[in-house]
Design brief:
mainly alpha, single chain
């Protein structure tokens, strides 16, 4: 059965095509926050190393980078078209006002570089392109920074998975490694969201 929350299942079931589609959704659609981005890229590198994915690692990185870049463009134009209505959306299973506030704070702290740094942070990589559209960041500036982030993300994580893929203990403890990645990448985000939630409650 297809499990879109399991990196290995995504790749075994749908190959590079489904992998690219999930990356596009995570960077370009609100529903993308549900998907396992970082662990998926690491797993793609690992499965390329052991020839489950029968493509050169450079091509895998390129396909993922292109999917992330196109996802960014989708998110930007959705944000551009919806404008400030994004801030007024009611809380739902996928959308939480805290996500927008968190991403906004990253923009205030890091500027356009959030489109690069944010690629390595769950939630932020989904909302950063949207918010860039909302605040109507000049498109020429957006597209250049987006391109850098869309390349840096898969180059880093796919390469790590690829170079570790043939090490026996990595295969043996794959589940624990992925769990560790999830904790490391989502821990700070969860803490910030909880912090934002408390501020909204007590203000």
């Amino acid at each position: 059965m297809l499990d879109l929350f399991n990196p290995k299942t995504i790749i075994y079931f749908g190959g590079i095509g489904l992998l690219a589609l999930v990356v596009f959704a995570e960077t370009g659609l609100l529903i993308g926050i549900l998907f396992p981005g970082d662990s998926l890229l690491f797993t793609a590198g690992l499965l390329t190393a052991v020839r489950v994915i029968h493509l050169p690692v450079q091509l895998v990185i390129g396909i993922i980078g292109l999917a992330a870049f196109l996802g960014d463009q989708s998110g930007y134009w959705i944000g551009w078209r919806t404008g400030k209505a994004l801030f007024d959306r009611p809380k739902s299973l996928i959308f939480r006002p805290e996500y927008v506030q968190l991403t906004k704070k990253f923009y205030q702290k890091y500027g356009a570089a959030v489109l690069i740094l944010g690629k390595f942070l769950p939630v932020v990589r989904t909302f950063a392109p949207l918010l860039a559209g909302v605040i109507q960041m000049p498109y020429r500036k957006f597209i250049s920074v987006s391109a850098v982030g869309s390349v840096a993300w898969p180059v880093t994580l796919v390469s790590v998975g690829y170079f570790l893929g043939n090490i026996p203990w990595v295969q043996q403890y794959y589940g624990w490694i992925v769990l560790g990645m999830i904790v490391v990448t989502t821990g700070p985000i969860v803490w910030r969201i909880l912090k934002e939630s408390r501020k909204r409650v007590f203000v």
